[in-house]
Design brief:
single chain, 331 residues, alpha/beta, Rossmann fold, Dihydrodipicolinate Reductase, domain 2, 8-stranded mixed sheet
Length: 331
Amino acid sequence: MIRVGVAGFGKIGKVRVEEINKNPNTELVAIFDLNKSNELQGVLFCNSFDELINLDLDAVFICTYNNVNAEYTTLALERNLHVFCEKPPARSLQELKKVSECYSEKKHLVLKYGFNHRFHYSVIEAKKIIDSGKMGKLLWLRGVYGKAGSIDYDKNWRNYKKYSGGGILIDQGIHMLDLISFFSNKKFEEINSLITTAYWNIESEDNAFVTMRSSDNLIASFHSSATHWKHKFLLEMCFEEGYINLDGILSKTNSYAPEKMIVGRREFEDITFAMGKPKEETVYFSNDDSWKLEVKDFADSIINKCHVKNGTLDDALNVMSLIEKIYKKSI
């Protein structure tokens, strides 16, 4: 049994605790959270992160503000604990590089980052199709990830750079960046971006418009927005033989639903009657097991003494490198 501690018992921390309690190989031992009113029967609540990681634990989940993600990850690794850290892995690439330096001497431990979108069933199925080669070469990707905001959006801790490191890009756009890298398996070196605060009275950005190109001319673009006024997730991918669109994604609020995958096959029909109307197959997905599958992946890797395949340190370094370039390249 893997004895687990959790740092941070907010919205995401509670989701992780729920899945830790469901997993047959993990046992929740203790929680550290600044809110002293939180309590769970049979679970020790610690007064500090140091107290948490000095308990008899095997692993720790870090579900805290971004400003301590890298620090807590390093401290836990130094205590020889396996680590699951939520996204973003740090506020900056520089912070994350310090984690990398520490982990270079702790390779026997499992380190996983929470990019749960990779574990959605629409993403899993799309990846299978892409890897089969049936769609041919990937030509371009285009994404939109927009949120409605809320009446108190400007008061959210995520919009204060000292806690978050940035705005909507590092908070939500990071998922789209990770999926683009995941599906394309490319390194994007040429980046152009427009970062703007269009509406909200915040110090961080509420919109990010990004275009990227790899060395072999694959182009990807996406828009991450906190002024969309309606929750939206869309990732379009065009190949030599057709296209795959991921439209909608399931979440705890269900406000990005439905989650579906649309696969279209390129056809050169009769130009008079059917031009631009290829045959499409639409698959709907009604379950979101991404949180469960992530915890399972982490626990299985510890048990089997192997590294995770998704949410690796390399994945984290790649996406944080892109985020740094996007911020720096903004016109």
